[in-house]
Automatic annotation (TrEMBL), chains A, B:
InterPro entries: ATPase_NBD (IPR043129), ROK (IPR000600), WH-like_DNA-bd_sf (IPR036388), WH_DNA-bd_sf (IPR036390). It comes from Oceanispirochaeta crateris. Pfam families: HTH_24, ROK. This is ROK family transcriptional regulator. Belongs to the ROK (NagC/XylR) family.
Length: 386, 386
């Protein structure tokens, strides 16, 4: 099933069919600028490889209603993995984007060695369980930190103290498996893109609020990486220039204002003022943050700071969708309400009218799903596999 | 010279040759995934249309050194226009990107009618002067305000009080000419992209500081428009949340802190404190802003605020080039120095290491040049013109 140069359009046709979900030959010809004959030939080739199939009839636009083409779900499978909270999440996705299996593997210690060996074990077990399937050999992997996706190196992940961790090479050496590794906030954004209808939203900012505050950017329907894979450091944009010190060395970063530690500290201060016992964990605060409750003020402030950062994004990037997620968001449903109540995100009105701000509770598997979508995007590899 | 569907790759080949400036057939085949035979055929077609030519010999990589292909400068010409300071700037560009003519036309009154009639007059005179040349019928036009480039409407330009100004239709109706209209900060960014080597920088933020503060974004080598053409509203991102009121209705926007009016006001306050005569115009301040001079403090503050905004961009977008321009930048060379001295842009170090911050004094014609590049990008139109 080697891809021939003369079939350089083959992967483009497959890519469009996968992204659209279903499409007619005529529309394929229109989008690609190829002749209908050429499209017909390429479609035949993809059908003979059992990657696409005819399914249903589209709307007629004068003449006979066209037959629609869809990906064959069983045509190829993809494994996506992501590390969160001392465990690996893995999913298996079919060619149509449906998750057909998922699992979680705890990591005993967050050393590079333990992390890698547990991932290899997890992938092997998942592959063994589905040994009858045609699985793409390249695994998508989402990790924390700044990730050089070209070299397959985690350059720095301060939370887990990884520096220059050559994860792709280590996995290759120990198991022969190939991975594509990307920061987990970036693959989460990719999941948001595909889990919503890609026809509806092309510029998506996915914001994850936990201990850290990170974001992933889908711009013009593509995952935006930046010049050195560093795009999306929303947590370290400045909101209150003379605000509290941040771990990064600056002051008043969004993360220093609305990250879990900042919320906990603010809650503890408030408890002291009110002479009640101090909250021990973030949930103690989030669970008492509705109007009239003890920690409502804390969440009001969080909403205020978050709105400023969101306003800046709306002004600068004019997105059509902003997706909030992470422990702080899922633990505190009223946060989205408070943010949405601020009708004015400190941004220009036309940009504000163009955007929808929502929360997502897809949970920690979102990044694993995004990692699977990431490798599914490479239709050249789907076609060149044996 | 109608483009055939079977030649859908023709415009791609032309596009690559224009962007690269020179390239061999072998490299074209590698980039496009087409066979060398197919590339050879397409190249012949473009040569027969006098759009590209053989020019010079490339480096051998085993075997015979390859012949390089270049655009024929005279193959097609492009007119770009932009409105600034009560006048239209126009340039004529050849296919290789060289500006071969330029002119300026004052606008007596900034009404839609006067503005349109003066542009039509200017284009006609430029076309007449170059009537021997093959000029692309579509003119690129940069204007202030929020521009719906699809509909050809200036939705709102507060400075000149234009609202829902259907500039494309008006020009079409009165002269039969087609235009493509885009916000002038966006086309300025496109000029920055092409005037630097596009091979070197793919993620460029162009920041123009005058009465307003606007930006244009080149991301992944393409002009980023946003979901409703509103990307780049850097001037209205929040820098000091409780800062001075901005025209947009919010507080502490970058424009309210470093726009010309803000600088003038700050200078006047400083003059009052120092009991000297108040500055009347912005240049009175910029010209006395070196270290030890009266208004140095004003510019130090401007640099501080600008650095915060630049830091936010570096964190969020991880660009490789930031270009500062506009009257405030060209009138005050020490501003770039002060901004660059802030080694720490309040941004993550790897992102900071990836970016270069420079100033540009290309002047007001930059936007007109960008407008010409804008229409040159549409190689389909170049091929389909008679």
């Amino acid at each position: 099933m080697k891809i021939q140069k003369k079939h350089s359009n083959l992967h483009k046709i497959l890519d469009i069919i996968i992204r659209k979900g279903e499409i007619s030959r005529i529309d394929l010809a229109e989008i690609t600028g190829l002749t209908r004959a050429a499209v017909g030939h390429l479609v035949d080739e993809l059908m003979s490889q059992n990657l696409i199939m005819e399914a249903g009839i589209g709307e007629a636009r004068g003449g006979r209603p066209p037959t629609l083409l869809q990906p064959v779900p069983q045509g190829c499978y993809f494994i996506g993995a992501a590390v969160f909270d001392f465990s690996w999440s893995l999913v298996m996705m079919d060619l149509s984007g449906t998750i057909i299996d998922e699992c979680t593997y705890p990591i005993s210690r967050m050393t590079p060695e333990k992390t890698v060996s547990q991932l290899i074990k997890a992938i092997k077990e998942l592959k063994d369980k589905h040994r009858d399937k045609r699985i793409l050999p390249r695994i998508g992997v989402g990790t924390p930190g700044l990730v050089d996706s070209e070299k397959g190196i985690i350059v720095s992940a301060f939370d887990v103290r990884w520096m220059n961790f050559p994860i792709a090479d280590m996995i290759k050496k120990e198991s022969g498996m190939s991975i594509r590794v990307v920061n987990r906030s970036k693959v989460s954004a990719l999941a948001s893109y595909y889990l919503h209808n890609p026809e509806n939203y092309g510029n998506i900012i996915s914001i994850v609020i936990g201990t850290g505050v990170a974001s992933g950017l889908i711009l013009d329907h593509k995952l935006y990486m930046g010049s050195s894979f560093g795009a999306g450091e929303l947590g370290h944009t400045s909101v209150i220039p003379n605000g509290p010190a941040c771990l990064c060395g600056n002051r008043g970063c969004l993360q220093a204002l609305i990250g879990e530690n900042a919320i906990l500290e603010r809650g503890q201060n408030l408890a002291r003022i009110n002479s009640v016992s101090a909250p021990e964990k973030i949930d103690d605060i989030l669970n008492q943050s509705r109007e009239g409750e003890l920690y409502h003020q804390v969440i009001t402030e969080v909403a205020e700071y978050l709105s400023i950062a969101i306003g800046n994004i709306i002004n600068l990037l004019n997105p059509d969708l902003i997706v909030l997620s992470g422990p702080v968001v899922s633990g505190c449903p009223q946060l989205l309400e408070l943010v949405s109540q601020k009708k004015n995100y400190r941004s220009m009105l036309p940009n504000q009218d163009a955007v929808k701000v929502i929360s997502s509770d897809w949970g920690i598997q979102t990044a694993a799903v995004g990692s699977a979508y990431l490798v599914r995007e490479n239709t050249r590899e789907i076609l060149s596999q044996p």
